């Protein structure tokens, strides 16, 4: 038997998949600054390390999930987690609980934040802003994985450029250098914050795993293990650079935005206003809206992909209409939860869901998932890999059905 040649994954194809995770993380992760302030800034220098570790844990988890999903030809995240947990398939329901709660909170925070930004920048009525953002998110989620990949790719590029520009200017304009801030913090805290930094890294990666269903749905274009790895390393670089720069900037301006009433809700906006650069504030507003909308789109899409296939929707022939019904339901419900406020949602809701995410997603995929993927790929090719001349369809290494493969 001739050796199978592994097709190379084009950079743009891998980038488009990596950008989905980046866009999903952008809204609450570093655009508002709320999550960065809650989980990292208070830890000082250890918070910077924690942010890097969190992004590594997240992208490695997504990588194993995509490899398992694509290699076996799975068609839903329910099948993915049944494969991961097999022979204890029913544990899959723990992820369902985690996912439903996190979708509600993530979408509520994204839409509420975007509507507040429209109100603050353009004077738009808050409730009108909610409707406008909701309709836009709805339109982007009802037309399938292709539109989500495309939207995330271009929004991801715009977000990355504007975010890095804002953070770089913010760091430069601060009264003291980031090195002196970190050095002073180390002299005060030493290694005392390391345990908390480790916990926060896992917790942060845990609740960010709400985007896993979207990632596996949009990541089916990766035809081999190398492609999945390439996409997630690109995503790691994008996410880490943006998140770390946001932490650096907030550390430099911490004394300023914490002294302003409500300044910690969207601390990046408070910093932009404090710098007094109008153009920068406008650019930040555009970046913030793109981030929040992309977070809402990528989060809802995974929910839609799961529920539009239920039997209750079987009489509806149009896929966009089925998607629209499910999307509209989750958007309306999320807005009810948003009344709790962005800070409370992130501190308490995200935090507790993060603990559950550690137990049912991060640790299982980085242990059992790694083992099962390595074992399976020793004897099987990716289910969605294209046939090559070197190895025809009648190859000796056959691809087994999903049910038979779950034990691997």
CATH topology: Hydantoin permease
Could you name the ranges where pLDDT drops below 50 across 5 or more consecutive residues?
Answer: 386-408
N-to-C terminal Cα separation, in Å? Answer: 24 Å
Apparent shape:
globular
Count of distinct structural domains: 1
Spell out the helices and strands N to C.
Answer: HHHHHHHHHHHHHHHH
Oligomer: single chain
Q: So, CATH architecture?
A: Orthogonal Bundle
Total of DSSP H or I helical runs spanning 4+ residues:
16
Proportion of residues in β-strands: under 5%
Helix content estimate: over 70%
Describe the structure.
The chain is mainly α and 408 residues long. It has a single domain, classed as Hydantoin permease (Orthogonal Bundle), CATH 1.10.4160.10. The chain contains 16 helices and no strands. The chain has helices at residues 11-31, 34-39, 45-71, 77-85, 92-122, 126-141, 145-173, 178-189, 194-208, 212-218, 225-257, 267-275, 278-307, 319-337, 342-377, 402-405. α5 packs across α6 (126-141). The longest helix is centred in the last third of the chain and has 36 residues, at 342-377.
